[in-house]
Amino acid sequence: MLTLLLKGLMIGFAIAAPVGPIGILCIQRSLHDGFKIGLMTGLGAALADGTYGLVAGFGLTVISSFLISYQMWIRIFGGIFLIYLGIKLLFAKPSVKEKKENSDKSSWHTLATTYFLTLTSPVTILSFVAVFAGLGLGTTHPKLFEAIILVLGITLGSTVWWFILSGGVAFILHHRMSGKVMRGINWISGLIILIFGVVALNVG
């Protein structure tokens, strides 16, 4: 079972690590809002990775087929959301520290929005299907306990990556950012995410 857990950790880490729109968003939020918001952004993505790992690990072919069949609409939704986030960041101003209650609400909102944003990426489910098929793990009749261990490993592996990324960015760079530099980072991040959104809408 330890071997299966390690496989899950490696899968989750490998799928989360490539820098995409969520990675850019996590970096921007870690710089702008600090470690907590950056980590919650990553945890939203990790939970989405775990959800897709659940689909692939339990051989839920009906769900995966549905997601693949409707990937155009999923991509459109995700693309529009990315464009919205990109435009929002382009005009974002460096924020002052919020009150604790507002920060808590923002944390959960951050997790939820990132979770649904990651779920709208058809690339994620296709990546899991490909990896599981290559490792011979995606069967239609998996053992329940083995599938749970594997999905747990995937979620933990993804979480480890987001913890490293958000923690490294927040603790090393966050307090060194001036308002002018942060405004520039917001603009660059918004532009990159906006491009990801436009690409998502135009990839047929």
Protein topology:
Elements: H1 2-16, H2 21-33, H3 35-57, H4 61-69, H5 71-90, H6 100-119, H7 122-135, H8 144-173, H9 179-202
Helix pairs in contact: 1-8, 2-3, 2-8, 2-9, 3-6, 3-7, 3-8, 5-9
Describe the protein:
It is a single chain. The protein is an all-alpha fold and 204 residues long. The chain has one domain (2-12, 20-202). Helices cover 82% and strands 0% of the residues. The chain contains nine helices and no strands. The protein has helices at residues 2-16, 21-33, 35-57, 61-69, 71-90, 100-119, 122-135, 144-173, 179-202. Helix 2 (21-33) crosses helix 8 (144-173) and helix 3 (35-57) runs parallel beside helix 6 (100-119). The longest helix is centred in the C-terminal third of the chain and has 30 residues, at 144-173. It starts with a helix and ends with a helix.
